[in-house]
Amino acid sequence: MNKESVLRDVVRALRQVYDPEISVNIYDLGLIYDLKIDDDHKVFVTMTLTAPNCPMADQLVEDVVEAVKDVPGVTDAALELVFEPEWDKSRMSEAAMLELGLL
Question: Are 33 and 47 a contacting pair, CB within 8 Å?
């Protein structure tokens, strides 16, 4: 598998992980800031949360890492949780905004 197809499948997997407090997947919410894959197909995820004091932060991070690791072709996953820049609703996809009634 090439990197592009693995990353496409990673995005598909991330769209199956939902923020526990909002009924929208984390990818369309804009919580994923960056995805990189190295030559060995290890995926590096940079993500944030809708709020730094999210009570489900640990579970959400674990869900993301497991979802990425479960993608065929991925050899490992690493996640960096960041709060700069701060998340805001402008990062949401149009689909997410429609789902939440913001459009």
Answer: yes
Q: Which fold has domain 3-87?
A: GMP Synthetase; Chain A, domain 3 (3.30.300)
Look at residues 20, 19, 10 and name the one whose alpha carbon lies nearest to residue 69: 10
Q: What is the model's pTM?
A: 0.92
- Amino acid found at 97: M
Span 71-81, pLDDT tens digits: 999 999 999 99
Q: What are phi and psi of 69, to 5 degrees?
A: -65, -30
Average pLDDT over residues 23-29: 94
Which class for 90: exposed (0-12), middle (13-18), buried (19 or more C-beta within 10 A)?
exposed
